[in-house]
Write a structure and sequence with these properties.
CATH architecture: 3 Solenoid
Radius of gyration: 30 Å
CATH superfamily: E3 ubiquitin-protein ligase SopA
Helix content: 25-40%
CATH class: Mainly Beta
Distance between the termini: 113 Å
Oligomer: single chain
């Protein structure tokens, strides 16, 4: 009788094991079948989060419009560019954007009048028809940027890097507040007379010597001594 009871217990245990295995297999099947839906849900959630972040960044930029100082705009603008958002037509007049890093950004028709862009990284930026009137571009890197029909009257371009930049139709260049130590090697389509004017005002066509590199701080010191 004991042997029969033990046999029954063994059968029940086996049935439980089989049931557990079936439940596991069923769960695995459902998990496998639902992978596409989960991926879509994750992508949708990521897109919603990205849009929310972009909206918040634009709120920061627009709220600070017309005000001095950074107002959080540096981080907001860099976040927008990282999310591949166009900055065409952005209004940044008088903004303090020193050290801004926006390589490759689309800033067509941007208004940057009297903005502080000292040391900004604006390589390969599209600044077509942008208004840089009175902007401080001291030490900014605009190499290979597009400045087609951009306005630069009154801008401070001391030690600014324009190497390889497209200067087609550049406006107000003869009214630059400073062109000392501007780097112009390889600048494309400069307006007639611009290169000669810039050289007369302290610009450079050759790259700094590899043996004796000229750092921005050194160029600034030279400018102050020569003032």
């Amino acid at each position: 009788m004991n042997s029969g009871f033990a046999y029954d217990i063994a059968i029940v245990a086996n049935i439980i094991k089989i049931a557990e295995a079936l439940v596991f297999l069923w769960g695995a099947r459902q998990l496998w079948l639902g992978r596409g839906e989960r991926r879509q849900a994750e992508q949708k959630a990521a897109e919603i989060a990205r849009k929310a972040a972009n909206y918040q960044a634009w709120q920061v930029v627009n709220t600070a419009q017309g005000k001095g100082g950074s107002g959080g705009r540096i981080d907001a603008l860099q976040d927008l560019v990282r999310n591949e958002v166009s900055l065409a037509g952005v209004q940044l007049d008088g903004a303090w954007l020193e050290g801004l890093v926006l390589p490759g950004a689309d800033m067509r028709l941007a208004s940057l009048k009297h903005a502080n862009l000292r040391g900004a990284d604006l390589r390969n930026v599209n600044l077509e028809q942008a208004d840089l009137t009175g902007a401080d571009l001291t030490g900014a890197n605009l190499s290979h940027s597009r400045l087609t029909n951009a306005q630069v009257r009154g801008a401070v371009a001391m030690t600014t890097d324009f190497r390889g930049a497209d200067l087609t139709g550049l406006r107000g260049w003869d009214g630059l507040a400073s062109a000392s130590y501007v780097l112009l090697e390889g600048a494309r389509h400069p307006p007639r007379g611009f290169i000669e004017w810039a050289l007369e005002h302290g610009a450079a066509l050759d790259e700094p010597s590899a043996a004796e590199p000229v750092e921005p701080e050194q160029r600034f010191s030279q400018e102050w001594r020569g003032a």
